Amino acid sequence: MNRYPLWKNLLVIGVFLLGALYALPNLYGEDPALQISAQRGAQLDDSARTKLDDALKAAAIVPRGLETEGEEGWLVRLGSSDEQLRAQDRIAQALGPDYTVALNLAPATPAWLEALGARPMYLGLDLRGGVHFLMEVETVAVDAQLYDRMAGELRSALREAKLRYRGLASDRNGLQLQFADPAQRAQVLELIGRDLRDLVEAPVVPGAVLDPLTLQLVVGEEVLKNERRNALQQNLTTLRNRIDELGVAEPLIQQQGDSRIVVQLPGVQDTARAKDILGATATVEFRLVDMDGDLAAAKAGRVPPGSRLYRERDGDAVLLQRRVITTGEHIVNASSGFDQVQNIPAVHVTLDGLGGRMMADATKENVGKPMAVVFVETKTLTEQRGEETVRVKRTVEEVISIATIREKLSDRFQITGLDSSKEAHDLALLLRAGALAAPMSIVEERTVGPSLGQGNIEMGWRACLLGFLVLSAFLIVYYRVFGLFAVITLAYNVIVLIAVLSILQATLTLPGIAGVLLTVGTAVDANVLIYERIREELRNGVTVQAAIEAGFTRANDTIMDSNVTVLIAALMMLWFGTGPIRGFAVTLAIGTVISMFTAMMGTRAQVNWVFGGRRLKSLPI
After folding, report:
1. What is the pLDDT of residues 68-115, one digit of tens each?
2. Residue 334 main-chain phi, psi, to 5 deg
3. How far apart are CA 227 and CA 231, in angstroms?
4. CATH of 6-25+450-611, one of 3.30.200.20, 1.20.1640.10, 3.30.300.20, 2.40.50.1070
5. Are strands 122-123 and 507-508 parallel, antiparallel or unpaired?
6. Rounded to whole angstroms, how far apart are CA atoms 414 and 340?
7. Residue 117's pLDDT is what?
8. Cα distance from N-terminal residue to C-terminal residue, the chain
9. CATH number of 280-446
10. SS3 assignment, position 280
Protein backbone atom coordinates (compact mmCIF):
# COMPACT_ATOMS: atom_id res chain seq x y z
CA MET A 1 0.00 0.00 0.00
CA ASN A 2 0.84 3.69 -0.29
CA ARG A 3 3.03 3.46 -3.36
CA TYR A 4 2.64 6.10 -6.03
CA PRO A 5 2.84 5.09 -9.70
CA LEU A 6 5.84 6.44 -11.57
CA TRP A 7 3.91 9.23 -13.33
CA LYS A 8 2.74 10.73 -10.01
CA ASN A 9 6.27 10.71 -8.60
CA LEU A 10 7.57 12.36 -11.77
CA LEU A 11 4.75 14.93 -11.56
CA VAL A 12 5.63 15.94 -8.00
CA ILE A 13 9.36 16.11 -8.74
CA GLY A 14 8.83 17.88 -12.09
CA VAL A 15 6.58 20.56 -10.58
CA PHE A 16 9.18 21.23 -7.89
CA LEU A 17 12.08 21.47 -10.36
CA LEU A 18 10.15 23.74 -12.72
CA GLY A 19 9.03 25.85 -9.75
CA ALA A 20 12.61 26.22 -8.51
CA LEU A 21 13.79 27.15 -12.03
CA TYR A 22 11.15 29.84 -12.63
CA ALA A 23 11.41 31.21 -9.09
CA LEU A 24 15.18 31.59 -9.45
CA PRO A 25 15.16 34.96 -11.33
CA ASN A 26 13.75 36.64 -8.21
CA LEU A 27 17.06 36.05 -6.41
CA TYR A 28 19.11 38.15 -8.85
CA GLY A 29 17.47 41.48 -8.05
CA GLU A 30 17.53 44.55 -10.28
CA ASP A 31 20.01 47.13 -11.51
CA PRO A 32 19.37 50.89 -11.22
CA ALA A 33 18.99 52.05 -14.80
CA LEU A 34 18.02 54.97 -17.03
CA GLN A 35 15.50 54.62 -19.85
CA ILE A 36 16.28 56.99 -22.73
CA SER A 37 13.83 57.56 -25.57
CA ALA A 38 13.62 60.10 -28.38
CA GLN A 39 10.72 62.48 -28.80
CA ARG A 40 9.02 62.90 -32.14
CA GLY A 41 11.53 64.03 -34.74
CA ALA A 42 14.66 63.22 -32.70
CA GLN A 43 16.91 60.23 -33.37
CA LEU A 44 18.94 57.88 -31.20
CA ASP A 45 21.93 58.07 -33.52
CA ASP A 46 25.73 58.20 -33.19
CA SER A 47 25.60 61.88 -32.24
CA ALA A 48 23.26 61.18 -29.33
CA ARG A 49 25.45 58.23 -28.29
CA THR A 50 28.50 60.50 -28.22
CA LYS A 51 26.68 63.02 -26.02
CA LEU A 52 25.63 60.17 -23.72
CA ASP A 53 29.18 58.84 -23.37
CA ASP A 54 30.58 62.33 -22.75
CA ALA A 55 27.97 63.01 -20.06
CA LEU A 56 28.83 59.77 -18.25
CA LYS A 57 32.55 60.52 -18.42
CA ALA A 58 32.00 64.05 -17.08
CA ALA A 59 30.11 62.58 -14.13
CA ALA A 60 32.87 59.97 -13.58
CA ILE A 61 30.35 57.15 -13.98
CA VAL A 62 31.18 53.83 -15.61
CA PRO A 63 27.92 52.09 -16.61
CA ARG A 64 27.45 48.39 -16.16
CA GLY A 65 26.08 48.18 -19.67
CA LEU A 66 24.07 49.89 -22.38
CA GLU A 67 21.31 47.98 -24.14
CA THR A 68 19.64 49.06 -27.35
CA GLU A 69 15.95 48.25 -27.54
CA GLY A 70 15.50 48.49 -31.29
CA GLU A 71 14.68 52.02 -32.38
CA GLU A 72 12.57 52.63 -29.30
CA GLY A 73 15.25 53.59 -26.80
CA TRP A 74 18.36 52.83 -24.77
CA LEU A 75 18.70 51.25 -21.34
CA VAL A 76 21.77 52.32 -19.34
CA ARG A 77 22.54 50.02 -16.38
CA LEU A 78 24.33 51.65 -13.44
CA GLY A 79 25.96 50.50 -10.26
CA SER A 80 23.95 52.35 -7.59
CA SER A 81 20.97 54.61 -7.01
CA ASP A 82 23.33 57.54 -6.38
CA GLU A 83 24.96 57.06 -9.79
CA GLN A 84 21.49 56.74 -11.32
CA LEU A 85 20.39 60.16 -10.02
CA ARG A 86 23.65 61.88 -10.96
CA ALA A 87 23.64 60.34 -14.43
CA GLN A 88 20.02 61.36 -15.06
CA ASP A 89 20.79 65.05 -14.52
CA ARG A 90 23.94 64.98 -16.66
CA ILE A 91 22.39 63.01 -19.53
CA ALA A 92 19.21 65.10 -19.57
CA GLN A 93 21.28 68.30 -19.86
CA ALA A 94 23.51 66.81 -22.55
CA LEU A 95 20.74 65.42 -24.76
CA GLY A 96 18.32 68.32 -24.38
CA PRO A 97 14.51 68.48 -24.34
CA ASP A 98 14.09 66.27 -27.42
CA TYR A 99 14.91 63.19 -25.34
CA THR A 100 13.23 61.67 -22.29
CA VAL A 101 15.54 60.35 -19.56
CA ALA A 102 13.58 58.43 -16.93
CA LEU A 103 14.55 56.41 -13.87
CA ASN A 104 14.05 52.66 -14.11
CA LEU A 105 14.98 49.38 -12.48
CA ALA A 106 16.13 46.69 -14.92
CA PRO A 107 16.03 42.98 -13.96
CA ALA A 108 19.50 41.46 -13.57
CA THR A 109 18.32 38.02 -14.70
CA PRO A 110 21.05 36.01 -16.50
CA ALA A 111 20.63 35.57 -20.23
CA TRP A 112 20.24 31.77 -20.00
CA LEU A 113 17.22 32.17 -17.71
CA GLU A 114 15.70 34.81 -19.97
CA ALA A 115 16.14 32.43 -22.91
CA LEU A 116 13.94 29.95 -21.03
CA GLY A 117 11.30 32.63 -20.48
CA ALA A 118 12.08 32.89 -16.76
CA ARG A 119 11.54 36.42 -15.46
CA PRO A 120 11.13 37.87 -11.98
CA MET A 121 7.66 38.81 -10.86
CA TYR A 122 6.66 42.45 -10.77
CA LEU A 123 6.80 44.23 -7.45
CA GLY A 124 4.24 46.83 -6.47
CA LEU A 125 4.92 50.49 -5.81
CA ASP A 126 5.22 49.78 -2.07
CA LEU A 127 7.90 47.11 -2.65
CA ARG A 128 9.83 47.95 -5.76
CA GLY A 129 9.12 51.62 -6.01
CA GLY A 130 7.84 53.05 -9.25
CA VAL A 131 6.40 56.19 -10.78
CA HIS A 132 3.70 58.34 -9.23
CA PHE A 133 1.93 60.99 -11.32
CA LEU A 134 -0.51 63.63 -10.11
CA MET A 135 -2.37 64.95 -13.16
CA GLU A 136 -4.66 67.97 -13.24
CA VAL A 137 -7.55 68.54 -15.60
CA GLU A 138 -7.54 72.10 -16.87
CA THR A 139 -11.03 73.34 -16.03
CA VAL A 140 -10.39 76.57 -17.94
CA ALA A 141 -10.01 74.51 -21.12
CA VAL A 142 -13.19 72.55 -20.27
CA ASP A 143 -15.15 75.81 -20.03
CA ALA A 144 -13.63 77.11 -23.28
CA GLN A 145 -14.46 73.86 -25.10
CA LEU A 146 -18.04 73.98 -23.82
CA TYR A 147 -18.58 77.54 -25.03
CA ASP A 148 -16.86 76.77 -28.32
CA ARG A 149 -19.29 73.91 -28.87
CA MET A 150 -22.25 76.08 -27.82
CA ALA A 151 -21.08 78.72 -30.30
CA GLY A 152 -21.22 76.16 -33.10
CA GLU A 153 -24.73 75.10 -32.10
CA LEU A 154 -25.85 78.72 -31.88
CA ARG A 155 -24.45 79.52 -35.33
CA SER A 156 -26.34 76.57 -36.83
CA ALA A 157 -29.58 77.57 -35.08
CA LEU A 158 -29.28 81.19 -36.24
CA ARG A 159 -28.53 80.06 -39.78
CA GLU A 160 -31.58 77.77 -39.85
CA ALA A 161 -33.81 80.50 -38.39
CA LYS A 162 -32.35 83.00 -40.89
CA LEU A 163 -31.57 85.49 -38.11
CA ARG A 164 -28.85 88.02 -38.86
CA TYR A 165 -26.06 89.15 -36.52
CA ARG A 166 -22.82 91.07 -36.91
CA GLY A 167 -20.45 88.79 -35.02
CA LEU A 168 -20.18 85.90 -32.58
CA ALA A 169 -17.19 85.34 -30.27
CA SER A 170 -16.59 82.75 -27.55
CA ASP A 171 -14.11 82.35 -24.72
CA ARG A 172 -14.01 80.57 -21.37
CA ASN A 173 -16.33 83.18 -19.85
CA GLY A 174 -19.20 82.87 -22.33
CA LEU A 175 -20.50 83.96 -25.72
CA GLN A 176 -20.83 87.50 -27.08
CA LEU A 177 -23.17 88.38 -29.96
CA GLN A 178 -23.06 91.70 -31.81
CA PHE A 179 -26.09 93.12 -33.68
CA ALA A 180 -26.83 95.99 -36.03
CA ASP A 181 -30.42 96.38 -34.83
CA PRO A 182 -31.89 96.01 -31.29
CA ALA A 183 -34.80 94.06 -32.79
CA GLN A 184 -32.39 91.32 -33.82
CA ARG A 185 -31.29 90.96 -30.19
CA ALA A 186 -34.85 90.29 -29.05
CA GLN A 187 -35.40 87.72 -31.82
CA VAL A 188 -32.22 85.84 -30.86
CA LEU A 189 -33.22 85.81 -27.18
CA GLU A 190 -36.56 84.30 -28.14
CA LEU A 191 -34.82 81.62 -30.22
CA ILE A 192 -32.41 80.74 -27.38
CA GLY A 193 -35.25 80.45 -24.88
CA ARG A 194 -37.01 78.02 -27.22
CA ASP A 195 -34.21 75.87 -28.70
CA LEU A 196 -31.01 76.38 -26.64
CA ARG A 197 -32.17 76.36 -23.04
CA ASP A 198 -28.72 75.68 -21.60
CA LEU A 199 -27.76 79.23 -22.63
CA VAL A 200 -29.02 82.17 -20.61
CA GLU A 201 -28.36 85.88 -20.73
CA ALA A 202 -25.48 86.85 -18.46
CA PRO A 203 -26.51 88.73 -15.30
CA VAL A 204 -26.15 92.49 -15.61
CA VAL A 205 -23.45 93.95 -13.39
CA PRO A 206 -25.02 96.49 -10.97
CA GLY A 207 -24.50 99.99 -12.25
CA ALA A 208 -23.53 98.88 -15.78
CA VAL A 209 -25.30 100.28 -18.82
CA LEU A 210 -27.03 97.63 -20.96
CA ASP A 211 -25.86 97.72 -24.58
CA PRO A 212 -28.89 97.03 -26.84
CA LEU A 213 -26.58 95.85 -29.66
CA THR A 214 -24.64 93.31 -27.57
CA LEU A 215 -25.82 90.05 -26.02
CA GLN A 216 -23.72 88.22 -23.40
CA LEU A 217 -24.62 84.53 -22.97
CA VAL A 218 -23.50 82.00 -20.36
CA VAL A 219 -24.53 78.53 -19.29
CA GLY A 220 -25.94 77.68 -15.88
CA GLU A 221 -23.62 76.79 -13.02
CA GLU A 222 -25.05 73.27 -12.85
CA VAL A 223 -24.36 72.70 -16.56
CA LEU A 224 -20.78 73.91 -16.06
CA LYS A 225 -20.28 71.56 -13.08
CA ASN A 226 -21.65 68.61 -15.02
CA GLU A 227 -19.35 69.38 -17.95
CA ARG A 228 -16.29 69.48 -15.69
CA ARG A 229 -17.33 66.29 -13.90
CA ASN A 230 -17.92 64.48 -17.19
CA ALA A 231 -14.55 65.63 -18.51
CA LEU A 232 -12.82 64.26 -15.41
CA GLN A 233 -14.62 60.92 -15.68
CA GLN A 234 -13.84 60.60 -19.38
CA ASN A 235 -10.19 61.37 -18.71
CA LEU A 236 -10.14 58.67 -16.01
CA THR A 237 -11.48 56.15 -18.51
CA THR A 238 -9.07 57.31 -21.20
CA LEU A 239 -6.05 57.00 -18.90
CA ARG A 240 -7.12 53.49 -17.92
CA ASN A 241 -7.37 52.56 -21.59
CA ARG A 242 -3.95 54.04 -22.35
CA ILE A 243 -2.35 52.19 -19.44
CA ASP A 244 -4.03 48.95 -20.57
CA GLU A 245 -2.42 49.53 -23.98
CA LEU A 246 0.95 49.84 -22.21
CA GLY A 247 0.39 46.53 -20.39
CA VAL A 248 1.00 47.88 -16.89
CA ALA A 249 0.14 45.38 -14.18
CA GLU A 250 -2.19 46.53 -11.38
CA PRO A 251 -1.98 50.30 -11.88
CA LEU A 252 -3.66 52.67 -9.44
CA ILE A 253 -5.78 55.30 -11.19
CA GLN A 254 -8.14 57.28 -9.00
CA GLN A 255 -9.76 60.66 -8.69
CA GLN A 256 -8.40 63.18 -6.20
CA GLY A 257 -10.61 66.17 -5.53
CA ASP A 258 -12.63 67.81 -8.29
CA SER A 259 -9.95 68.20 -10.93
CA ARG A 260 -7.00 65.86 -10.23
CA ILE A 261 -6.17 62.24 -11.00
CA VAL A 262 -3.54 60.10 -9.26
CA VAL A 263 -1.73 57.52 -11.42
CA GLN A 264 0.68 55.03 -9.88
CA LEU A 265 2.56 52.63 -12.14
CA PRO A 266 4.24 49.84 -10.17
CA GLY A 267 6.43 47.32 -11.89
CA VAL A 268 6.74 49.43 -15.05
CA GLN A 269 9.50 48.26 -17.40
CA ASP A 270 9.52 51.34 -19.63
CA THR A 271 8.88 54.43 -17.53
CA ALA A 272 9.94 56.75 -20.33
CA ARG A 273 7.24 55.46 -22.65
CA ALA A 274 4.64 55.60 -19.87
CA LYS A 275 5.53 59.24 -19.20
CA ASP A 276 5.25 60.10 -22.90
CA ILE A 277 1.86 58.41 -23.30
CA LEU A 278 0.32 59.74 -20.08
CA GLY A 279 1.75 63.22 -20.32
CA ALA A 280 0.67 63.77 -23.90
CA THR A 281 -2.72 65.10 -24.89
CA ALA A 282 -2.94 64.12 -28.52
CA THR A 283 -5.87 64.08 -30.88
CA VAL A 284 -6.71 65.09 -34.42
CA GLU A 285 -9.14 67.54 -35.95
CA PHE A 286 -10.48 67.47 -39.48
CA ARG A 287 -10.99 70.93 -41.01
CA LEU A 288 -11.68 72.26 -44.50
CA VAL A 289 -9.09 74.52 -46.10
CA ASP A 290 -10.36 78.12 -46.49
CA MET A 291 -10.02 78.63 -50.24
CA ASP A 292 -11.69 82.05 -50.20
CA GLY A 293 -9.55 83.65 -47.50
CA ASP A 294 -6.57 85.88 -48.17
CA LEU A 295 -3.52 83.89 -46.99
CA ALA A 296 -1.15 86.87 -47.36
CA ALA A 297 -3.42 89.05 -45.21
CA ALA A 298 -3.71 86.26 -42.64
CA LYS A 299 0.10 86.01 -42.42
CA ALA A 300 0.16 89.77 -41.77
CA GLY A 301 -2.23 89.30 -38.84
CA ARG A 302 -5.57 89.99 -40.56
CA VAL A 303 -7.16 86.53 -40.21
CA PRO A 304 -10.77 86.28 -41.50
CA PRO A 305 -13.37 85.83 -38.71
CA GLY A 306 -14.32 82.25 -39.70
CA SER A 307 -10.77 81.01 -40.24
CA ARG A 308 -7.54 80.18 -38.37
CA LEU A 309 -3.94 80.24 -39.49
CA TYR A 310 -1.98 77.00 -39.07
CA ARG A 311 1.49 75.75 -39.97
CA GLU A 312 2.38 72.60 -41.82
CA ARG A 313 5.33 70.49 -40.69
CA ASP A 314 7.58 72.05 -43.29
CA GLY A 315 6.76 75.51 -41.91
CA ASP A 316 4.39 76.63 -44.66
CA ALA A 317 1.29 78.55 -43.55
CA VAL A 318 -2.20 77.35 -44.40
CA LEU A 319 -5.58 78.93 -43.73
CA LEU A 320 -8.24 76.57 -42.38
CA GLN A 321 -11.88 77.07 -41.50
CA ARG A 322 -12.69 77.41 -37.80
CA ARG A 323 -15.52 74.92 -38.12
CA VAL A 324 -14.32 71.44 -37.17
CA ILE A 325 -15.76 68.57 -39.19
CA THR A 326 -15.03 65.99 -36.49
CA THR A 327 -12.38 65.24 -33.85
CA GLY A 328 -10.69 62.30 -32.19
CA GLU A 329 -13.60 62.13 -29.74
CA HIS A 330 -15.59 60.19 -32.37
CA ILE A 331 -12.82 57.72 -33.22
CA VAL A 332 -13.69 54.17 -32.13
CA ASN A 333 -10.67 52.39 -33.60
CA ALA A 334 -7.29 53.30 -35.04
CA SER A 335 -4.47 51.09 -36.27
CA SER A 336 -1.09 51.89 -37.73
CA GLY A 337 0.05 50.57 -41.07
CA PHE A 338 1.12 51.75 -44.52
CA ASP A 339 -0.66 53.47 -47.36
CA GLN A 340 -1.04 50.86 -50.08
CA VAL A 341 -0.44 53.32 -52.92
CA GLN A 342 2.47 55.44 -51.63
CA ASN A 343 3.84 52.91 -49.08
CA ILE A 344 4.19 55.58 -46.37
CA PRO A 345 3.21 55.33 -42.68
CA ALA A 346 -0.51 55.77 -42.13
CA VAL A 347 -3.15 55.47 -39.42
CA HIS A 348 -6.36 53.69 -40.43
CA VAL A 349 -9.30 55.31 -38.63
CA THR A 350 -12.84 54.14 -37.89
CA LEU A 351 -15.40 56.68 -36.63
CA ASP A 352 -18.54 56.10 -34.59
CA GLY A 353 -21.99 56.64 -36.07
CA LEU A 354 -22.20 60.34 -35.27
CA GLY A 355 -18.65 61.02 -36.46
CA GLY A 356 -19.28 59.08 -39.66
CA ARG A 357 -22.41 61.11 -40.40
CA MET A 358 -20.59 64.38 -39.71
CA MET A 359 -17.75 63.35 -42.02
CA ALA A 360 -20.18 62.19 -44.72
CA ASP A 361 -22.20 65.41 -44.58
CA ALA A 362 -19.13 67.63 -44.78
CA THR A 363 -17.36 65.74 -47.56
CA LYS A 364 -20.54 65.32 -49.65
CA GLU A 365 -20.87 69.10 -49.89
CA ASN A 366 -17.17 69.72 -50.55
CA VAL A 367 -16.05 67.17 -53.13
CA GLY A 368 -13.05 68.55 -54.99
CA LYS A 369 -11.98 70.79 -52.12
CA PRO A 370 -8.95 70.21 -49.86
CA MET A 371 -9.37 68.92 -46.29
CA ALA A 372 -6.66 69.13 -43.63
CA VAL A 373 -5.83 66.83 -40.75
CA VAL A 374 -4.62 68.85 -37.75
CA PHE A 375 -2.54 67.09 -35.11
CA VAL A 376 -3.00 68.65 -31.65
CA GLU A 377 -0.60 67.71 -28.87
CA THR A 378 -0.20 69.22 -25.41
CA LYS A 379 2.81 68.41 -23.24
CA THR A 380 4.18 69.74 -19.97
CA LEU A 381 7.94 70.22 -20.20
CA THR A 382 10.57 71.13 -17.61
CA GLU A 383 12.82 74.06 -18.53
CA GLN A 384 15.82 75.53 -16.77
CA ARG A 385 15.62 79.31 -16.45
CA GLY A 386 18.75 80.44 -14.72
CA GLU A 387 18.87 78.61 -11.40
CA GLU A 388 15.14 77.97 -11.37
CA THR A 389 13.42 74.91 -12.85
CA VAL A 390 9.96 75.70 -14.20
CA ARG A 391 7.24 73.62 -15.84
CA VAL A 392 5.98 74.96 -19.14
CA LYS A 393 2.93 73.69 -20.98
CA ARG A 394 3.19 73.67 -24.75
CA THR A 395 0.40 73.00 -27.21
CA VAL A 396 1.45 72.16 -30.74
CA GLU A 397 -1.12 72.37 -33.51
CA GLU A 398 0.23 71.45 -36.90
CA VAL A 399 -1.23 70.29 -40.18
CA ILE A 400 0.07 66.80 -40.91
CA SER A 401 -1.87 66.15 -44.09
CA ILE A 402 -3.85 68.03 -46.75
CA ALA A 403 -5.70 65.97 -49.31
CA THR A 404 -8.35 66.71 -51.90
CA ILE A 405 -11.74 65.16 -51.19
CA ARG A 406 -12.31 62.89 -54.18
CA GLU A 407 -15.60 61.42 -53.01
CA LYS A 408 -17.96 61.35 -50.07
CA LEU A 409 -16.17 59.79 -47.09
CA SER A 410 -17.86 57.64 -44.48
CA ASP A 411 -16.73 56.20 -41.15
CA ARG A 412 -13.53 54.56 -42.49
CA PHE A 413 -10.50 56.38 -43.90
CA GLN A 414 -6.76 56.86 -43.27
CA ILE A 415 -4.40 59.61 -42.05
CA THR A 416 -1.02 60.08 -43.75
CA GLY A 417 1.74 62.67 -43.49
CA LEU A 418 3.40 61.12 -40.42
CA ASP A 419 7.17 61.16 -39.89
CA SER A 420 7.74 57.49 -39.07
CA SER A 421 6.14 54.14 -38.29
CA LYS A 422 6.75 54.78 -34.58
CA GLU A 423 4.82 58.06 -34.73
CA ALA A 424 2.00 56.31 -36.58
CA HIS A 425 1.96 53.60 -33.89
CA ASP A 426 1.91 56.11 -31.02
CA LEU A 427 -0.81 58.22 -32.64
CA ALA A 428 -2.93 55.12 -33.26
CA LEU A 429 -2.47 54.10 -29.63
CA LEU A 430 -3.61 57.49 -28.35
CA LEU A 431 -6.59 57.65 -30.69
CA ARG A 432 -7.58 54.05 -29.98
CA ALA A 433 -7.41 54.58 -26.24
CA GLY A 434 -9.73 57.57 -26.54
CA ALA A 435 -9.32 61.29 -26.74
CA LEU A 436 -9.02 63.22 -23.51
CA ALA A 437 -12.12 65.32 -22.90
CA ALA A 438 -9.87 68.14 -21.69
CA PRO A 439 -6.13 68.82 -21.61
CA MET A 440 -4.23 67.53 -18.58
CA SER A 441 -0.85 68.40 -17.19
CA ILE A 442 1.44 66.48 -14.86
CA VAL A 443 1.67 68.73 -11.80
CA GLU A 444 3.66 66.23 -9.73
CA GLU A 445 5.91 63.39 -10.79
CA ARG A 446 7.49 61.29 -8.08
CA THR A 447 9.66 58.24 -8.30
CA VAL A 448 9.29 56.07 -5.21
CA GLY A 449 12.86 55.06 -4.41
CA PRO A 450 13.84 51.42 -4.10
CA SER A 451 15.25 51.92 -0.57
CA LEU A 452 11.79 52.34 0.94
CA GLY A 453 10.52 49.42 -1.10
CA GLN A 454 13.52 47.34 -0.03
CA GLY A 455 12.70 48.06 3.61
CA ASN A 456 9.13 46.87 3.07
CA ILE A 457 10.40 43.75 1.33
CA GLU A 458 12.77 42.95 4.19
CA MET A 459 10.08 43.46 6.84
CA GLY A 460 7.52 41.48 4.85
CA TRP A 461 9.77 38.54 4.19
CA ARG A 462 11.06 38.70 7.78
CA ALA A 463 7.46 38.24 8.91
CA CYS A 464 7.05 35.32 6.49
CA LEU A 465 10.33 33.75 7.61
CA LEU A 466 9.48 34.14 11.29
CA GLY A 467 6.04 32.63 10.73
CA PHE A 468 7.60 29.79 8.75
CA LEU A 469 10.16 29.05 11.49
CA VAL A 470 7.58 29.10 14.29
CA LEU A 471 5.27 26.82 12.31
CA SER A 472 8.18 24.53 11.46
CA ALA A 473 9.22 24.25 15.10
CA PHE A 474 5.65 23.48 16.18
CA LEU A 475 5.14 20.87 13.45
CA ILE A 476 8.42 19.06 14.07
CA VAL A 477 7.93 18.99 17.85
CA TYR A 478 4.28 17.92 17.64
CA TYR A 479 4.35 15.55 14.65
CA ARG A 480 8.05 14.60 14.55
CA VAL A 481 9.03 13.07 11.18
CA PHE A 482 5.63 13.88 9.70
CA GLY A 483 6.13 17.43 10.90
CA LEU A 484 9.35 17.53 8.85
CA PHE A 485 7.35 16.37 5.82
CA ALA A 486 4.93 19.26 6.39
CA VAL A 487 7.82 21.76 6.63
CA ILE A 488 9.25 20.52 3.32
CA THR A 489 5.77 20.80 1.80
CA LEU A 490 5.48 24.39 3.02
CA ALA A 491 8.80 25.30 1.39
CA TYR A 492 7.65 23.49 -1.78
CA ASN A 493 4.42 25.50 -1.63
CA VAL A 494 6.16 28.89 -1.36
CA ILE A 495 8.64 28.08 -4.16
CA VAL A 496 5.89 27.01 -6.57
CA LEU A 497 3.78 30.04 -5.60
CA ILE A 498 6.64 32.43 -6.40
CA ALA A 499 7.25 30.59 -9.67
CA VAL A 500 3.59 30.88 -10.72
CA LEU A 501 3.52 34.59 -9.84
CA SER A 502 6.68 35.04 -11.92
CA ILE A 503 5.33 33.09 -14.90
CA LEU A 504 2.06 35.07 -14.83
CA GLN A 505 4.03 38.31 -14.33
CA ALA A 506 1.70 39.17 -11.47
CA THR A 507 2.43 42.14 -9.24
CA LEU A 508 3.44 41.36 -5.67
CA THR A 509 2.50 44.04 -3.14
CA LEU A 510 2.86 44.29 0.63
CA PRO A 511 -0.70 42.94 1.05
CA GLY A 512 0.35 40.23 -1.39
CA ILE A 513 3.08 39.14 1.04
CA ALA A 514 0.34 38.90 3.67
CA GLY A 515 -1.50 36.63 1.23
CA VAL A 516 1.62 34.42 0.99
CA LEU A 517 1.77 34.16 4.78
CA LEU A 518 -1.92 33.28 4.97
CA THR A 519 -1.40 30.65 2.26
CA VAL A 520 1.31 29.05 4.40
CA GLY A 521 -1.19 28.93 7.27
CA THR A 522 -3.90 27.28 5.19
CA ALA A 523 -1.37 24.74 3.89
CA VAL A 524 -0.55 23.87 7.51
CA ASP A 525 -4.28 23.38 8.18
CA ALA A 526 -4.43 20.76 5.44
CA ASN A 527 -1.48 18.82 6.88
CA VAL A 528 -2.92 19.01 10.39
CA LEU A 529 -6.22 17.56 9.17
CA ILE A 530 -4.40 14.68 7.48
CA TYR A 531 -2.14 13.93 10.44
CA GLU A 532 -4.94 14.03 13.02
CA ARG A 533 -6.96 11.66 10.85
CA ILE A 534 -3.98 9.25 10.73
CA ARG A 535 -3.67 9.44 14.54
CA GLU A 536 -7.36 8.73 14.93
CA GLU A 537 -7.15 5.68 12.67
CA LEU A 538 -4.14 4.38 14.64
CA ARG A 539 -6.04 4.81 17.90
CA ASN A 540 -8.88 2.76 16.39
CA GLY A 541 -6.43 -0.13 15.92
CA VAL A 542 -6.04 -0.21 12.15
CA THR A 543 -2.70 -1.09 10.59
CA VAL A 544 -0.11 1.57 9.88
CA GLN A 545 -0.50 1.44 6.09
CA ALA A 546 -4.31 1.49 6.34
CA ALA A 547 -4.12 4.48 8.69
CA ILE A 548 -1.93 6.40 6.23
CA GLU A 549 -4.31 5.54 3.37
CA ALA A 550 -7.37 6.55 5.39
CA GLY A 551 -5.73 9.75 6.64
CA PHE A 552 -5.01 11.06 3.16
CA THR A 553 -8.15 9.72 1.47
CA ARG A 554 -10.78 10.67 4.05
CA ALA A 555 -9.30 14.09 4.80
CA ASN A 556 -9.38 15.07 1.13
CA ASP A 557 -13.05 16.07 1.16
CA THR A 558 -12.59 18.30 4.21
CA ILE A 559 -9.45 19.89 2.71
CA MET A 560 -11.26 20.50 -0.56
CA ASP A 561 -14.26 22.10 1.16
CA SER A 562 -12.17 24.44 3.34
CA ASN A 563 -9.91 25.51 0.46
CA VAL A 564 -12.77 26.06 -1.97
CA THR A 565 -14.46 28.44 0.48
CA VAL A 566 -11.19 30.39 0.81
CA LEU A 567 -10.82 30.39 -2.98
CA ILE A 568 -14.37 31.76 -3.44
CA ALA A 569 -13.63 34.58 -0.98
CA ALA A 570 -10.35 35.36 -2.79
CA LEU A 571 -12.10 35.44 -6.18
CA MET A 572 -14.75 37.82 -4.84
CA MET A 573 -12.03 40.15 -3.56
CA LEU A 574 -10.28 39.90 -6.91
CA TRP A 575 -13.51 40.64 -8.79
CA PHE A 576 -14.78 43.56 -6.71
CA GLY A 577 -11.64 44.86 -5.03
CA THR A 578 -9.11 47.41 -6.18
CA GLY A 579 -5.48 48.23 -5.41
CA PRO A 580 -4.12 46.47 -2.30
CA ILE A 581 -7.17 44.21 -1.98
CA ARG A 582 -6.54 42.77 -5.43
CA GLY A 583 -2.88 42.23 -4.60
CA PHE A 584 -3.86 40.25 -1.52
CA ALA A 585 -6.52 38.30 -3.44
CA VAL A 586 -4.16 37.29 -6.27
CA THR A 587 -1.60 35.62 -4.00
CA LEU A 588 -4.30 34.09 -1.81
CA ALA A 589 -6.17 32.57 -4.78
CA ILE A 590 -3.05 31.18 -6.46
CA GLY A 591 -1.61 30.00 -3.14
CA THR A 592 -4.84 28.21 -2.20
CA VAL A 593 -4.87 26.18 -5.44
CA ILE A 594 -1.18 25.30 -5.01
CA SER A 595 -1.63 24.34 -1.34
CA MET A 596 -4.36 21.84 -2.31
CA PHE A 597 -1.93 20.17 -4.73
CA THR A 598 1.03 20.19 -2.34
CA ALA A 599 -0.99 18.94 0.66
CA MET A 600 -2.74 16.13 -1.24
CA MET A 601 0.18 15.03 -3.43
CA GLY A 602 3.40 16.63 -2.17
CA THR A 603 3.11 15.48 1.43
CA ARG A 604 1.81 12.07 0.47
CA ALA A 605 4.64 11.54 -2.00
CA GLN A 606 7.15 12.06 0.81
CA VAL A 607 5.26 9.70 3.14
CA ASN A 608 5.09 7.09 0.40
CA TRP A 609 8.83 7.36 -0.32
CA VAL A 610 9.76 6.85 3.35
CA PHE A 611 7.02 4.58 4.74
CA GLY A 612 5.09 3.22 1.75
CA GLY A 613 5.11 -0.52 1.05
CA ARG A 614 6.76 -1.40 4.37
CA ARG A 615 5.53 -3.52 7.26
CA LEU A 616 5.47 -1.12 10.22
CA LYS A 617 4.18 -1.52 13.74
CA SER A 618 4.17 2.21 14.57
CA LEU A 619 4.54 5.65 13.05
CA PRO A 620 6.62 8.61 14.32
CA ILE A 621 3.63 10.97 14.30
Report:
1. 765 567 888 888 877 887 888 788 888 877 777 777 777 888 888 888
2. -150, 135
3. 6
4. 1.20.1640.10
5. parallel
6. 11
7. 86
8. 18
9. 3.30.1360.200
10. coil
